[in-house]
Amino acid sequence: MCFLLDIDPNSPVVELYKPVLSPISLSFTKWCMAFVYRFWDPVEVEEEASSAQKHRRNEVHPMVICDKDVSVRTGNILSRVSQTRDVIKMSKMHLELKAVRIIHTFSTLDKTISSLERQLAAARAAKADTEEGSPMVTKSGTKDLNESRRVFFVMGIITALRNRKRRNSIRETWMPQGEELKRLEKEKGIIIRFVIGHSSTPGGALDLAINAEEEQHKDFLHLVCSHFQSGPDLEIQNLRRIECFVWQNHIEGYHELSTKTQVYFSAVVAKWDADFYLKVDDDVHVNLGVVSSTLARHRHEPHVYIGCMKSGPVVAQKGIKYREPEYWKFGEGNKYFRHATGQIYAISKDLATYILVNRHILHRYANEDVSLGSWFIGLDVEHINDRSLCCGTTPPDCEWKAKSGNHCGASFDWSCSGICKSLVRMKEVHQRCGEGDQAIWDTSF
């Protein structure tokens, strides 16, 4: 075995034994070299040294393979990677396009389902009305001829039990009568009715007077159950009244206008399939041709609410005509939100159906026009502010426009919330502001 001795040559021990150690160390060194060369091939040593040196060179300068086949293979791989990226990109675009189509399809289906739900709700309400008594049936017990087909619009003239003279002033001016009224329904799809409930004492003088008026003119929409009106015995009538839904029996009263408006829209949308439903006061002048043309422009628009939009202070003082007991709900500004004035306004079928379906939970304020506006305030409704529906008669704004060939749709006086002294002035306004009796027949929509 060969090993090295780490001995300091200048140490005293070495100096002392130097004569003896020198021959021994020389012999020992030669023996070790012979042993190494015998068992360790010099060629292998050189190869290992050369390999280590080559490895160190490669670490400093990495070897680059310039083989042509390898370059071609590398190019093919890069080409396939690029093609794969293009395929992934196209697939992603295709999936995005497909997702957009799916979203559009779901949106269309959602709208269709919503429409069908509204129609189903209206059909259920109509079925319940037919089975349990309905405001959709007139005193004579016969339904209108047009209720089974689509009509253009239904106009309900809100009137009171004692307002026969007002009704006559309208019949004598802008509202067709008799056969002309039937022709209007058949040819133009326009239905006009006076909307009435019943008195607080059913079967009293006021109700009998309305029944006689209905027999004469056939132009009422009764918000009363049909079987509630029949039967001579008062006790039987009271029992039958319990069977009817509350909303089907409207008791007339000035402070019940919000309820009457809600009942009216619920009744007409269940009775007639129309594009629009209008509410008009019985002291307002209307040009049917202009109103028809106005509505025709919005016939294919959903969620439409048309009228003269207004706002104003909320009346909180007691004893005032338009006092709002819930004034505090309108906040610090104490102003109403924008809504159509109550003399005349129109809503599309989907909004009328919304009122029918949700009539039990819709809140009613003191004023009916405010109530209607509040029902739509949180919905996606298009408010259309049409100033041709609120022309004045004093000064004669409607007359000036008529002379220029631009007739108004509706005329009244803001100061009177209708035509001032309408019983004596309705004919005068009709002569000055009317479009002519032939206009509605010449108007196409």
Task: Give an account of the 3D structure.
With 445 residues, the chain is an alpha/beta fold. It has a domain at 132-388: Spore Coat Polysaccharide Biosynthesis Protein SpsA, Chain A, CATH 3.90.550. 50% of the residues lie in helices and 12% in strands. The strands form two sheets. The protein has a seven-stranded mixed β-sheet with strand order 3-2-1-4-7-6-8. A two-stranded antiparallel ribbon has the order 5-9. α6 links the parallel β2 (190-196) and β3 (220-222). α9 crosses α12. The longest helix has 65 residues, at 68-132.
Brief account:
By secondary structure, the chain is an alpha/beta fold.
Residues in helices, as a percent range? 40-55%
Q: Report the CATH architecture of the domain at 132-388.
A: Alpha-Beta Complex
What do the pLDDT scores average to?
Answer: 79
CATH topology of the domain at 132-388: Spore Coat Polysaccharide Biosynthesis Protein SpsA, Chain A
Number of strands: 9
How much strand? 5-15%
Order of helices and strands: HHHEHHEHEHHHEEHEEHHEHEHH
Taking Cα atoms only, what radius of gyration do you get, to the nearest Å? 48 Å
